[in-house]
Amino acid sequence: MCDVITTVDMHSGGSPMRIITSGIPEIVGETYKERFEYVTTKLDYVREFLCYEPRGYRYMTCILPVLPDDGADLGVIFIAATLYLPMCGEALTCFARYAVDNNLVEMTTPETKIDIQCPCGIVTCHVDCTNGKAGKVRLESVPCYLHSSDIKLVLDNDVSVTVDLLYGGAYYVIVSCYELQKKLSMENFRVLEALSYDVTVKMRKYVKEKYQGDNRPFICGTIIRSHVRDSNSSEHFVNVGEMLVNRGYCGSATMSRATLDYFQGHLNIGESRVYNSIVTNEGTTATVLRTANYGNKKAVVIGIQGIGFYTGKHEFTFEHSDNLKNGFLV
């Protein structure tokens, strides 16, 4: 383990992001996939070191730059406290701005295009560049699709819910707050946290019983949504992994929601909707850009936009005599 790791910290929509800038050993692997596997197996201490208390906390996401291999300009790995994320839109809005500001790519005006390789595939970022400074970022998703709909689950409180499973760079369960019989508000934060995690657990059990091997989707989390028909905006509450409540709009969750709205006939190609976090009241506009394919499934490409703001720089140290040197999570 290295004694010092340095980072640049940012946030997007209130979601904290930590870009690792130095202190990581050489990442071994000929391909992006091999490098990802090396990080998750040989360098997993980084996740605990930076995301766990006392240096981080449960809702922190770290961004580890790695070499790409698929014609992309840059590569990243998203490290959350309890899992490695397939996709993180808020992290990309931060990293894309950072990449331009720190000359990881050549700046072009009025916009710099960056193809970033992620676990889910290549995500194209368009960074607004004026007066020599990077700003807002537009993302174009990998193909997103409706995996399955009208799935019946019974929760621990004996409430039966009907949910949909979407892929927006990561697999999310989407459930209406009306199905859960709870108002989507901060007053119900702890209740929504528990209910959404219960949905995730029940859905993971469902897919384990129904699908085998590579056909089994990994359930990244659950989105509790407000009711949407013709409204220009909607709210949601996103619980990722093992009780990691997203602070902001959550890019991959927003892409999943816009995909569901498209396949349910509430959004057409070229149409947009704003999706807001109930935690920070921050939102992003999602636009259905075009149709696509994901294997043999019909899919769409979703565009979202956001901006990352700098919050500080850190030099995190490791003392071998510290009994809590690896961190702890509560």
Please specify the SSE layout and strand pairing:
Elements: E1 4-12, E2 15-22, H1 32-42, H2 45-51, E3 61-66, E4 74-80, E5 84-85, H3 89-101, E6 111-118, E7 121-130, E8 133-140, E9 145-154, E10 160-167, E11 171-176, H4 177-180, H5 189-210, E12 219-225, E13 233-240, E14 244-245, H6 251-263, E15 272-277, E16 283-294, E17 297-306, E18 309-317
Parallel strand pairs: 2-3, 4-6, 11-12, 13-15
Antiparallel strand pairs: 1-2, 1-18, 3-4, 4-5, 6-7, 7-8, 8-17, 9-10, 10-11, 12-13, 13-14, 15-16, 16-17
The whole-angstrom Rg is 19 Å
Share of β-strand residues: 35-45%
Question: How would the global form be characterised?
Answer: globular
Parts with pLDDT < 50 across at least 5 consecutive residues:
none
